[in-house]
Structures are given as C-alpha cells and as structure tokens.
Amino acid sequence: MQPIRKSKKLDEVCYDIRGPVLEKARKMEDEGQRIIKLNIGNLAAFGFDAPDEIVQDMIRNMANSSGYTDSKGLFAPRKSVMHYTQEKKIAGVSIDDIYLGNGASELIVMAVNALLNSGDQVLVPAPDYPLWTAAVSLSGGTPVHYVCDEQADWTPDIDDIKKKINSNTKAIVVINPNNPTGALYPVEVLEQIIEVARQHQLIVFADEIYDKVLYDGNTHTSLASLADDVLCITFNGLSKNYRSCGFRSGWMVVSGEKKHARDYIEGLNMLSSMRLCANVPGQYAIQTALGGYQSIDDLVAPGGRLARQRDLAHKLLTDIPGVTCVKPKSALYMFPKLDAKMYPIADDQQFAYELLAEERVLIVQGTGFNCPTPDHFRVVFLPNIDDLGDAMNRIGRFLDGYRRR
Ligand code: PLP
User: Fold this and answer.
1) Tens digit of pLDDT for each residue in 254-305?
2) Which residues cross the membrane (predicted)?
C-alpha cells in the first residue's frame, strides 16, 4: 500500500510543547511512574480552578447554547469585550471589530491565514509562543524571527526588528506579557514597535492573553492603545486570566486604521463564517468573567499562590551553579539559561529526554520556542510549592551529574 503522508504544508510546522518528549512522559505515566510536569500552562491541572461564577454561568446557559450563533459571536459577550477595550484605552472599537473564538489559538490561525500569501514574511519574536511561528508557516508565509534580548529583560531588540524588515514583511507579532520568558515590555519599547509598524505599514498582531497575570504591582499597556493609525489585532481570552483553558473561549479585536484593510477584514469575516461560530457556553462565560470579581489579582499579589511559586522557583533555579534566569514580571513561565561551558548541550530535546528519564521532570526545551541556541528551557511554575521544590532539586541533581560527565 502507498504510505499516507502528511501534507507538505506541515513540513515547516513545529509545535514541540506537545511534542515527542511529552509522548515519552505519557508512556512513563502509563507504566505507573509519577512525572512532575513543568511543561504546560494548564492552570486547572494544578488546582487553579476556574472562578465558580464562570462555571455556574456556563451551566446555567447550557440549555440556551445548542444553536449556532452569529459567526463573530453573541452580542452581549462581544459588548463586554468592547467595554474591556475601552478600559484598556483602545480607541474606536465597535462591536463589529470583535470576533469570539474557540480560544485565542483559533483566532491566531485565522488572522494569519487570512493575510498571508506564499513569500510573505511575518516578524515573530525569538523565543516565541510557537503557535505563532507554526501558524505563519502553515499559512504559506515565512516566519522571520527577531531577537528578544535576554540582557534587556527579554525585551524586543528594535534594531534587529528594523534590520529584518523588507518589502515582503506584512506583520509583526508581539507577545506581551510574554510566554515563554515572563517579560512585560515597558511602554517606551511598545511605542518604538508601533513607530516601526507605522513607518513600514505592518499589521500588529498583539497577543495579550496574560494581561492580568502581573506580579510586583506591574501594569499592562495594550499595544493597540498607543496608535489609532496602525492596524492592530489584539488577542485575548479566558484561558489564563480566568483559569479557564478548557472552556476554549477567546477573542480578537481589530483596531486602528481599517479603511485600507477592508479586503483583509473581508477575509477575516469569511474565515470566521466558515467555522460557523465559537462554542456557545464559552461565549456566555466572557461577560461574567470580564464583569466579575477579578480573582487572579489575589493569586499574583505578594504572598498570593502564583507569586509565591514564582519566587520559589526562581530562587531554587538560580541557586543551581551555571543557571541564570530573568525573573518573570508576568505570566506563568520562566526561561532559564544554562552556562554553555558548564553544560555543553548540542541537542536540547535530548537534554529534555534525559532529564525526564533520569529525574521524571518534564520541561520543554528552548528550541521548542524557536530559541536559536540549545541552552535554554522553559519552566511552568504552576505545581504547588512542595512539587516545585522537589522538581527544582531534581533539576539541580540532574545538572550536577551533567557537569561531571
Ligand atoms: N497565546 C499565548 C502567548 C499562549 O501562551 C497561549 C496558550 O498557552 C495562547 C495564545 C493560546 O490560548 P488559548 O487557550 O486562548 O487558545
């Protein structure tokens, strides 16, 4: 029989967060081994339950949810997203500019697909949340990675961005707050990005899904709030801020100068119609979430569970010889660096395999986030304090052995 092959479109697509190392971890679990998982930002799996009012709201609305809705989504939740954009000072957003989706992921793929022709380039951060690179490749475009500078708390290197723009560059992706680095960009950096987008007529794709997961009293500025003359698409949703990953509920907001983008917006509308609509109980939950008690605030405040876990994970990691790590200001992740002399890693996927096999700790290798060098890995600090402490001890022990090889 002829082998059935995956499409060539997938040749350049990579999504290692759920890649081969996770497969190996699953097999180990099937054999009865307990793995400490530092690999995925799935809050509910670590006892960060969704706010009760959201769950109750979804249950209450279940009976009204069996039909399709307008393909952009129900009016009331879109209206609440509109109010949210006003709170975030994003000007000129009407209900028509808001699309609800099955998580931000669906909308990211849609927004990129609606834009790109083969040969088009999109500036994507390195490291990035790899869905962005994958979505650009799947859409036939070319991801061009710009450097986020670890020495500057992982902020985008504006000169590098400028260097990488050419006549094929269509858009720039900005992930702020950032996965995987936990960076939160200063307003001046955001303003510089907007200026570059303005000068080169780039669409700005602003992924702001962690905009309420902020530590140390930090505040978040939406990129789209800084310009009404640049086309921005802002992505957000319930997964992280409201601990509701499984409800698959997100939105995107088109703002800024839209007159010249009518054709693109028509493309967005077409793709939105083709998937009919987002899951309806998830749509209902948006209004309750945005208008309800913002319980994430308690978790990120000093002494809150997330803040304590961030502090502990950061301290224990950076106590290990040859490990440095920018302390995250936001989100759920850190992206430590291993000293290349002490840990001469050629293949960081192999490194992740070995850590898993020897110590039963699951991390994701840095190259899975399009980090150019194999000397980083991502840690999720969601497990409870005891498990985190245990995991960091095991990583320390593994690295100790690695140094002595
Ligand atoms: N954007 C970033 C930066 C993320 O980290 C994630 C999920 O981890 C997503 C988007 C996808 O979110 P959703 O669950 O809304 O699809």
Assistant:
1) 999 999 999 999 999 999 999 999 999 999 999 999 998 899 999 999 999 9
2) none
pTM: 0.96
pLDDT at 19 over 90: no
- Would you say the CB of residue 245 lies under 6 angstroms from ligand 1? yes
Q: Does the C-beta of 103 come closer than 6 Å to ligand 1?
A: yes
Cβ neighbours, 10 Å, residue 319: 10
Q: What is the ipTM of this complex?
A: 0.99
pLDDT of residue 20: 83
Taken in order of first residue, the domains within the chain and their CATH numbers are 8-49+298-403 (3.90.1150.10), 52-291 (3.40.640.10)
Tell me which residue has tokens 């005891």: 386
Q: Which long-range contacts (CB under 8 A, 24 or more apart) does 136-141 make?
A: 136/112, 137/12, 137/13, 138/9, 138/10, 138/13, 138/109, 138/112, 138/113, 139/109, 139/112, 139/113, 139/115, 140/9, 140/116, 141/112, 141/115, 141/116, 141/117, 141/170
Ligand 1 atom at minimal distance to the Cα of residue 41:
8
Ligand 1: does its nearest atom lie under 6 Å from the Cβ of 137? no
